[in-house]
Amino acid sequence: MSKRNASMLGDAYKSTKQPRHWSLGLVGSMKDPELIVKQSDRVVAIRDKYPKAKVHYLVLPQDDINSIYGLNKNHISLLEEFGDFYEELKENHDGATLRAGFHAVPSLQRLHMHVISSDMVSPCLKTKVHWNSFTTKFFIPYQDVLSELKESGSIQKISTELHKSLMSTDLQCNQCSFKPKNMPQLKEHLFTHVK
Ligand code: AMP
Ligand code: ZN
């Protein structure tokens, strides 16, 4: 980010209670009592404001860590606490199958781990990019990030080419072999898996 952009973001954050720049939206939401479901000194879990499934939470650090690419070996115990939050969220949603992971290229600032149910039934799930961001390797499972951090001390970025190819992957149901032609067909099909 350029110095000018960084200073603009800084100003946006300082001048209002809710940061104005869209990429800082989570920094406001993680302090919103309406969205918070659990917090500790180091970690907070909030409801995703635009859920892409019936159950969709975000788990964030209280400290200002921008993304998985800002993690180092000193953050291992923090990330393990993310895992404790994930376990508790799973316990609270007995009937659902939850997954936890990070987008390889996040759009919003402040490290955030998605905890999302596999139904993917939600009016907010609209585009192929939404779909592929949760159902391809663009979604890096929590355990993979933790293992990479323990082994390498940092997380390696994906290439622009891989990012592009993951986003343009043909639609494929995440629960069976059905290959829908388009998003409306996929969304209709997803209901057939709902028990
Ligand atoms: P990403 O940066 O792609 O990993 O995902 C950002 C996530 O934040 C998406 O699932 C959005 O639905 C969600 N989101 C966007 N804005 C807000 C907000 N202000 N408060 C809470 N969740 C948000
Ligand atoms: Zn299916």
Can you describe what's shown?
Strand 1 and strand 2 (about 45) form a beta hairpin. Helix 3 (about 75-90) runs antiparallel to helix 5. This protein has a single domain (about 20-195), classed as HIT-like (HIT family, subunit A). It has a 6-stranded antiparallel beta sheet with strand order 1-2-3-5-4-6. It contains 7 helices and 6 strands. With about 200 residues, it is of the alpha+beta class. It has helices at about 5-15, 25-30, 75-90, 130-135, 140-150, 160-165, 185-190, and strands at about 35-40, 45, 55-60, 100-105, 115, 140. The N and C termini lie far apart (about 45 Å). The chain binds adenosine monophosphate and zinc ion (ZN). The site of zinc ion has 6 residues, from loops. Zinc ion binds near residues 178, 189 and 193.
Task: Sum up the structure in keywords.
single chain, alpha+beta, 7 helices, 6 strands, 15% strand, binds adenosine monophosphate, binds zinc ion
